[in-house]
Protein: Alpha,alpha-phosphotrehalase
Organism: Tepidibacter hydrothermalis
Amino acid sequence: MKDFKNSVVYQIYPKSFNDSNNDGFGDLNGVTEKLDYLKLLGVDYIWLTPFYVSPQNDNGYDVAHYCKIDPRFGTIEDFENMVKEAKKRGIEIMLDMVFNHTSTEHEWFKKAIDGDEKYKNYYIFKKSKDEKEPTNWQSKFGGSAWEYVEEFDEYYLHLFDVTQADLNWKNEEVKTEIFDVVNFWIDKGVKGFRLDVINLISKPDIYEDDHVGDGRRFYTDGVRIHEYLKELNKETFGKHEDIITVGEMSSTTMDNCIKYSNPDEKELSMVFNFHHLKVDYENGDKWTLMDFDFIKLKEILSSWQMGMEEGNGWNALFWSNHDQPRIVSRFGDDKKYHTESAKMLATSIHMLRGTPYIYQGEEFGMTNQYIDSIENYRDVESINYYNILKSEGKDEKDIIKILQSKSRDNARTPMQWDESENGGFTEGEPWLKPGKTHKHINAKSALDDKNSIFYHYQKLIKLRKGYDVISNGKYKPIIEDDKSIFAYIREYEGNKLLVVNNFYPEEAVFELPEDIQIDKSKAKILISNYTDSSNEIQKIDLRAYESIVYYIE
Ligand code: TEU
């Protein structure tokens, strides 16, 4: 049985991963075709984002049937074959469960809108207040979080798109339906679940305006969230010792994340939190242009390492996913020091305490795509905010620059398998225009180059399995106030790691703090992004983005 504490998860966005039937849309057989590639990388699980029946307004996170596969992705037989083939290669499947909301195309919502009281109570309908929405809460995709239904003279809640209606978790029937969905997929051999915005499902008893924010404080990490998660655990995956779970925690707190992931709480195995990926949001606003705040980034990474260690919680470690811009463009350099900075970013989190997640294409340094016209964006969040920024009078060019930096479509352009047209993703018309970088950034070129980013990730994964200090070691940040270097020590049973990362193109000098005693004669370089890194651990002249891991017996 796999131990999630020294496992690595690879995230696949099936719609953009590999199109086996050339309809321009990635599919499950496309995933099966690439399992040998994933085995070579060395990953333990593959997390698949939703491929269930959906109108695709939010690329599948608007689920219209939880237990049926959308024909564009294939059939249940294709799924079962993928699971079987993955297991043959030592890879387990993690599915994405979207339980905060359903699509308004779901039959439950359709029955609700037809006036069926049973199903109306599956959702959150409220009367207007003073002729307005029940509260002033904002959707995370912009605009009001409420949609009016004239037949009822009521509004329904949607924290995301208007076609994603929030479920009422206070309703026992809703919970039973959800438990049945999880157990259906467990019976299909699924060994992992990623729970979408799961910390938003506990809504308040009283709905009131938020005079200081967008309403998230009333439903984030809500009053009954731990009760709901304990019940979900008990009724489904908690009955199996070999199933791992990860909760996507939106705008959460450390205390809650410790409770969510401490094994004594019997809730989840681990959590995603996003505080480290908001250090380039100006005044907390994603839709701005700002260089990332490096000191704040280090503070967040270190505080979460030490806090979760102290509370026996467990972090997912990640830079990228289908909602985030490509990390090498965001915190690295996607031009001159593309390889060095991509490898440095990988090392900087893979040597931390937690379970690393690699997002498709990250393993060979896929970059942002700098999509230069709104017609070529597909992401509902990006298009909504384009319209909001336009309505605020912002200049078109400036808005496009912001989208090029922050849009989720950066991560959703077709996987670049080789230098052929469409990057080898499809021979059809891709649903989202491919980037222009596939000529030199693609999986095939990476596999042909022993110094590629791919083999750096492969080695990081191997190291995690070979050195207990990586999974179990105590974390200690060092030189926290250094403006360029992120460095830390890991220590376990007398063995140490010294991890040193220059986050910038300018040279930087690392000096080992005097209170850290390390016998240089016992130190060896485990991995570096340069072939000739120094063994002088007392004082190191770090080159552009140089990243070195020393192991001290
Ligand atoms: O994302 C939660 C969420 O808040 C995202 O919208 C993301 O954090 C934000 O776009 C960053 O600006 C989950 C899924 O990962 C996302 O793809 C879905 O759109 C969303 O929930 C609704 O299901």
Observations:
- Residues 58, 61, 98, 140, 160, 196-197, 248, 250, 286, 322-323, 381, 408 surround 1-O-alpha-D-glucopyranosyl-D-fructose (CB under 6 Å).
- The chain has a mean pLDDT of 97.
- The first strand starts at residue 9 and ends at 12.
- The CA atoms of residues 340 and 529 lie 6 Å apart.
